[in-house]
Design brief:
Elements: H1 7-21, E1 34-39, H2 50-68, E2 72-74, E3 78-79, H3 84-93, H4 97-114, E4 125-126, H5 130-145, E5 149-159, E6 164-166, E7 171-172, E8 175-176, E9 184-193, H6 199-204, H7 214-224, E10 226-236, E11 249-254, E12 265-268, H8 275-279, H9 285-297, H10 300-304, E13 312-320, E14 327-333, E15 344-347, H11 353-362, E16 370-371, E17 391-392, H12 403-417, E18 420-426, E19 431-432, E20 434-435, E21 445-448, E22 452-455, H13 483-486, E23 487-489, E24 496-499, E25 503-504, H14 506-509, H15 513-516, H16 529-535, E26 540-544, H17 550-564, E27 577-580, E28 583-586, E29 593-595, H18 606-613, H19 615-624, E30 632-633, H20 639-655, H21 657-662, H22 675-696, H23 701-716, H24 726-743, H25 748-757, H26 774-777, E31 781-788, E32 791-799, H27 804-812, H28 815-821, E33 826-832, E34 836-841
Parallel strand pairs: 1-2, 1-26, 3-4, 12-14, 26-27, 28-30, 31-34
Antiparallel strand pairs: 5-6, 5-9, 7-8, 9-19, 10-11, 10-13, 10-18, 12-15, 13-14, 16-17, 20-25, 21-22, 21-24, 23-24, 28-29, 31-32, 33-34
Helix pairs in contact: 1-25, 2-19, 3-4, 18-19, 19-20, 22-23, 22-24, 23-24, 24-25
This protein binds one RNA strand through helix 7, strand 11, strand 15, helix 11 and strand 30.
Length: 842
RNA sequence: GCCGGAGUGGCGGAACGGUAGACGCAGCAGACUCAAAAUCUGCCGAGGGCAACCUCGUGGGGGUUCGAUUCCCUCCUCCGGCACCA
C-alpha cells in the first residue's frame, strides 16, 4: 500500500474489474427484488461536460446503493441518436450524421467509463440503428391502424434563415434557437399523433404519480390545460343579397356563460375557415381580406406582444345571441386565436379586459351583466372590465343569481334549447411528429396516385435511411431528393408510387426506449410483454427538469396506447421521478451565472479534471455542490476540498494499517470502551443512520457526504496507537470500515481499494450496507440546554435517565439561569427529555 | 396575469417546531520546513465589553407557541413554467 492516494492506478483497475466481472449485469430471471434504475438516455453531442455528469453520477450512486441493499438492479444506457445537430454538422462540415454520431457515442462511452459510472452495456440501445428504428416505425403503423396517427394541415414553425421547420422547443420567445431569426407560421401537410384523445387520462393519472415531484405534475396539468365551460352556437343573420353561407351558425366556447347577456359583439380569428366565404361580395370583403393577409405575415411573437394594440375590422355580418335574440356585429381580430377553442369568441367588454380594450378602441357598445357585491358598478365610472364574481343582472330569467350559480344553470339551458351545452376544452394539442429532415426514422408510408396513403407492410420494415444524401437546407426533406429512396411500387396495386419523405420527431424514439432495454435484441417484436410486466414500471427515473413536459408526456402517452393495445399491462411508465438541477457556471465576461452549455462557452470538461484529481474526486465534488434537485454553481476551486478529503481517508487507512490489521475480527464491546471510544462508536452508528436516511429520502447526497466527513473528523479524535488497547483498534476499525462502505456509492474506486486493504475479498458492491445499532446511539449522560424566555442561558449535563423533576430542579439551579430568574416569578417550565428545559417567567 | 419554487455568514450550503450557521470553500494566525508545497492546530455572522458575558441576527411586517429558519397571514425580491386560453 502506498502512502499517497494513487487514484491514477486504482481507478482504471477497478473500472476493468467491474466490466470484466459484469458487476452491473442484471439478473434477468429473478425480478422479486427488482430495481429498474433509469437515466434519461443522452443525445450524442460531441462530448460530455461536468454538468451532464451530475445525472449519471446521481444515477450511479443510487444504483450502487440499491445493489448493496440487496436489490436486483437494472441500469441500462443507450443513445437518443437521431436529431438535428448531427445533420446540421453534416451541412457545415460534410461529415455524414451516421459517422459523427457513432464517433460521439464512442467518446461519451469512454467518458462515462472514466467517471466510473457503470451500466449493463449488454442492453445498450441506439435509436438510429435499424434494429431499433424498425420498431419505432412499427409503432407508427400500429398507431395508424388504430386511427391514432393521421395526416393533416397545420401551421408549423418555420425559420426563413435556416430554411427549415423547427420543433416547438427550438423556438425561444418566437426566435430561432440557432440563428435568432423570427419564426413564422407556415401551413404544411403534417403527420400527427392523436394525443388529445388521451388528454383526460394523461391528466387523471397524474394523481397516481405520487413518486413524482409536485412541480412536474403541476407543469403537466397546466400543459394539458383542461378548462370546463359552455359551447353555444350563434346563428348568422341571413345575408341581404340572399346568397348562401358555408355554415348555419358560428359555434363558440366560453368559461363565462354567466356574462352572455353582456355580449355586444362577436370576434373571429383571421384564420377562421369560414371567414372568407362569410364576407364574399360584401362591401367589407376587401378590407377583411387585407386584414387576413396582414395577420398571416405576422410572426407569432408580433401577434402575441402585449404592447401591440389589438386591431380588427367589422365583417359586415351579424349573429344572433342565442340567449336574448339580440343581433350583434361580427368582427375579425388578431386577438382571437384559431388554435384555441372554436376560433370565435363572444365578446363581453364589461367583464373581459381584452374585450373592453377592443370595444373602447372601436366604439362598440358595452353592457353590464354582472354587478359587484356592493351593486355599485356604473358604466360611466368604469376604467376597465369587471372580471370578478358578482350578481347576474339584466339577464332575463337568470337575473339575481350569483354568477357562479348561474353558470351551470345557463349551460343546462343551452342544452335544453338545443343550441349548446357543457364542453370541456383542452389546451393540449395533437403531437406533430413530421420533420422535414434526414436524420430521423422515416415515416413508413407510401403515397400512391391510385390508392392514396398506403402503409408500408410490416414485413418490409425497416424503411432504411439511404446513405449519400445531399443535405442542402431547402425546406424540403433531403430524402425527397433521393430517387433511389423515393421511387417504389405501391404495395397495394404495384404501380409506381413515392415514399413519404418526412421523418419522425426524435421524441417518438425516446417514448419507448425504456421498454426496449428489457429485451434489446429481440428480433420478431419490439418488446416482450412478460418481461416488461415483470420489470416495469421504472422504479427510479432520473433526468433533467427540461424534460418535465415534452418527453415525459409523450412517454406516458405511448405507454397508455401500448397498454390499450394489449402489448403491455401497465399504463404509467415511471413510478418515481427525480429531476436534478442544472450545473451553472459564472461567466468570465459578465460575471453572471449561466447554465453550463457549449453554446454559452462555459463548459468544464471532466477529462482534464479526472486526469488531475481522479474520477472519485470529481464525483464527490459534483454531489457535494448542493442538494441535487436544485441548480448548482460549479466552482473549480471547490474540487480541491473533495480531493483533500479522499486523500485524508486514504492516509488514515495507510497510517493506521498495522492497528487496522490487528483489529481484524475484533468486535467493539461497549462495556469495555472508554469515553472517547464510546463517542466514536456512537458517531459511527449515528452516521450510518443519517446517511441511510439521506439515501432513502430525497437523495441529499451533499449532506450524506458532510456526515461522512464528520465521522472522519471524529476518527482523528480517537486514533489508535500501534501499541494501544484492543478496544481502541476495534472501534477505529469499525469506523474506518463504515466510512469505506458509506462512501462507496459516491467514490467507488477508492472504496473498493480500501475495502481490499482492510482485508476483505474484492467487490464492495456485494457487501451489505451497514445497519445502525440502536444500542450504540444511546448515551449515559446528556447535555440539557436551559432557556429562559426563549434564550439559551445555560447548560447542564445529567444522566440520560434523569426524571423530569430532577431535570427541572437541575435546570433551575444552573448559575447562568439563576441570574436571569432573579426578581422574576417562574410561570411555566417545559421539559423536553434529553434536549432542553424552557422556562417562562411572569 | 395565473401556477410552482426559493430568499440563512465573504461563498456553496446544514438544521424531526427545541443550542442557527453542521460540512466544505475562501480568508487569517500558528506548528513543521533553510524555504515552499503538502500536512497538522486554532480563529473565522454583526455590534459592544479587559473579561465572564450582553445585544442584534435566517428578505420586510404581523400572528400562533414556553420556544419559529421551520407553522399561519401579508408584503417585497429573484428563479422556473404557462400565457391574447375566450
Amino acid at each position: 500500500m502506498q502512502e499517497e492516494y494513487p487514484f491514477r492506478d486504482i481507478e482504471p483497475r477497478w473500472q476493468r474489474h467491474w466490466r470484466e466481472a459484469g458487476a452491473f449485469r442484471a439478473d434477468a430471471g429473478d425480478t422479486s427484488r427488482k430495481f429498474y434504475c433509469l437515466m434519461m438516455f443522452p443525445y450524442p453531442s460531441s462530448a460530455l461536460h461536468v454538468g451532464h455528469g451530475r445525472n449519471y453520477i446521481i444515477g450511479d450512486a443510487v444504483a450502487r446503493y440499491k445493489k448493496m441493499r440487496g436489490a436486483n438492479v437494472l441500469t441500462p444506457m443507450g443513445w437518443d441518436a437521431f436529431g438535428l445537430p448531427a445533420e446540421n454538422a453534416a451541412i457545415k462540415s460534410g461529415v455524414p450524421p451516421r459517422d459523427s454520431t457513432f464517433r460521439n457515442i464512442a467518446t461519451m462511452k469512454r467518458q462515462l467509463e472514466a467517471w466510473g459510472v457503470c451500466y449493463d452495456w449488454d442492453r445498450e440501445v441506439t435509436s438510429c440503428k435499424p434494429d431499433y428504428y424498425r420498431w419505432t416505425q412499427w409503432f407508427f403503423l400500429k398507431f395508424l391502424e388504430r386511427g391514432l396517427a393521421y395526416k393533416g394541415k397545420a401551421a408549423v414553425n418555420w425559420c426563413p434563415s435556416c430554411a427549415t421547420v423547427l420543433a416547438n422547443e427550438q423556438v425561444v420567445n418566437g426566435l430561432c434557437e440557432r440563428c435568432d431569426s423570427r419564426v413564422v407560421a407556415r401551413q404544411l401537410e403534417q403527420w400527427f399523433f392523436r394525443t388529445t384523445q388521451y388528454a383526460q387520462r394523461l391528466l387523471d393519472d397524474l394523481s397516481l404519480l405520487d413518486g413524482w415531484p409536485e412541480r412536474v405534475r403541476t407543469m403537466q396539468a397546466n400543459w394539458i390545460g383542461r378548462s370546463e365551460g359552455t359551447r353555444m352556437d350563434f346563428a348568422l343573420v341571413p345575408r341581404e343579397d340572399g346568397a348562401a353561407d358555408p355554415c348555419a351558425g358560428v359555434p363558440c366556447f366560453t368559461t363565462r356563460v354567466d356574462t352572455i347577456y353582456g355580449c355586444t359583439y362577436m370576434v373571429m380569428a383571421p384564420e377562421h375557415p369560414h371567414l372568407k366565404a362569410l364576407v364574399a361580395n360584401l362591401p367589407q370583403e376587401r378590407e377583411v381580406r387585407e386584414f387576413i393577409a396582414r395577420a398571416s405575415t405576422e410572426s407569432s411573437l408580433e401577434r402575441a406582444s402585449e404592447s401591440l394594440e389589438k386591431r380588427g375590422v367589422f365583417t359586415g355580418r351579424r349573429v344572433i345571441n342565442p340567449y336574448n335574440g339580440a343581433a350583434i356585429p361580427l368582427w375579425v381580430s388578431d386577438y382571437v386565436l384559431m388554435e384555441y377553442g372554436t376560433g370565435a369568441v363572444m365578446a363581453v367588454p364589461a367583464h373581459d379586459t381584452r374585450d373592453w380594450a377592443f370595444a373602447k378602441k372601436y366604439g362598440l357598445p358595452i353592457s353590464i351583466s354582472i354587478q359587484n357585491p356592493a351593486r355599485s358598478l356604473r358604466l360611466e365610472d368604469m376604467t376597465d372590465a369587471y372580471a370578478e364574481d358578482g350578481v347576474v343582472v339584466d339577464s332575463g330569467p337568470f337575473s339575481g343569481l350569483h354568477n357562479r350559480e348561474a353558470i351551470p344553470r345557463m349551460t343546462a339551458w343551452a342544452a335544453e334549447k338545443g343550441f349548446g351545452g357543457p364542453m370541456v376544452h383542452y389546451r393540449l394539442r395533437d403531437w406533430l411528429i413530421s420533420r422535414q429532415r434526414y436524420w430521423g426514422a422515416p415515416i413508413p408510408v407510401i403515397h400512391c396516385q391510385a390508392c392514396g396513403v398506403v402503409p408500408v407492410p410490416e414485413k418490409d420494415l425497416p424503411v432504411l435511411l439511404p446513405e449519400n444524401v445531399e443535405f442542402r437546407p431547402t425546406g424540403e426533406s433531403p430524402l425527397a431528393r433521393c430517387p433511389a429512396f423515393m421511387n417504389v411500387p405501391c404495395p397495394r396495386c404495384g404501380r409506381p408510387a413515392r415514399r413519404e419523405s418526412d421523418t419522425m420527431d426524435t421524441f417518438v424514439d425516446s417514448s419507448w426506449y425504456f421498454l426496449r432495454y428489457l429485451t434489446p435484441r429481440l428480433e420478431n417484436a419490439p418488446l416482450d410483454r412478460r418481461v416488461c410486466d415483470a420489470w416495469m414500471p421504472v422504479d427510479q427515473y432520473i433526468g433533467g427538469i427540461e424534460h418535465a413536459i415534452l418527453h415525459l408526456l409523450y412517454a406516458r402517452f405511448f405507454t397508455k396506447v401500448l397498454c390499450d393495445m394489449g402489448l403491455i399491462g401497465f399504463s404509467e411508465p415511471f413510478a418515481h421521478l427525480f429531476t436534478q438541477g442544472m450545473i451553472c457556471k459564472r461567466s468570465e465576461k459578465d460575471g453572471l451565472l449561466y447554465k453550463m452549455s457549449k453554446s454559452k462557452g462555459n463548459v468544464v470538461s471532466p477529462d482534464r479534471l479526472i486526469a488531475q484529481y481522479g474520477a472519485d474526486t470529481v464525483r464527490l465534488y459534483t454531489l457535494f455542490l448542493g442538494p441535487p434537485e436544485k441548480d448548482a454553481e460549479w466552482d473549480d476551486r471547490g474540487i480541491e476540498g473533495a480531493h483533500r478529503f479522499l486523500r485524508r481517508v486514504w492516509r488514515r487507512v495507510y497510517e493506521n494499517r498495522d492497528a487496522l490489521r490487528a483489529a481484524r475480527g475484533l468486535r467493539p464491546d461497549p462495556d469495555a470502551m472508554d469515553a472517547a471510544e464510546r463517542d466514536l462508536h456512537r458517531k459511527t452508528h449515528e452516521t450510518i443512520r443519517q446517511v441511510t436516511r439521506d439515501m432513502e429520502g430525497a437523495f441529499h447526497f451533499n449532506s450524506a457526504i458532510a456526515r461522512i466527513m464528520e465521522l472522519v473528523n471524529a476518527m482523528d479524535a480517537c486514533g489508535p496507537a500501534a501499541d494501544g488497547g484492543a478496544q481502541r483498534k476495534a472501534v477505529y476499525r469499525a469506523a474506518a470500515e463504515t466510512v469505506v462502505l458509506l462512501i462507496s456509492p459516491f467514490a467507488p474506486h477508492v472504496a473498493e481499494e480500501l475495502w481490499v486493504q482492510l482485508g476483505h475479498a474484492p467487490g464492495i458492491l456485494a457487501a451489505d450496507w451497514p445497519a445502525a445499532d440502536h444500542a450504540a446511539l444511546s448515551r449515559d449522560e446528556v447535555e440539557i440546554v436551559v432557556q429562559v424566555n426563549g434564550k439559551v442561558r445555560g447548560r447542564v449535563t445529567l444522566p440520560a435517565d434523569a426524571g423530569r423533576a430532577a431535570v427541572e430542579r437541575a435546570a433551575l439551579d444552573v448559575p447562568g439561569v439563576r441570574k436571569h430568574l432573579e426578581g422574576r416569578t417562574v410561570r411555566k417550565v417545559v421539559v423536553v427529555p434529553g434536549r432542553l428545559v424552557s422556562i417562562a417567567t411572569g
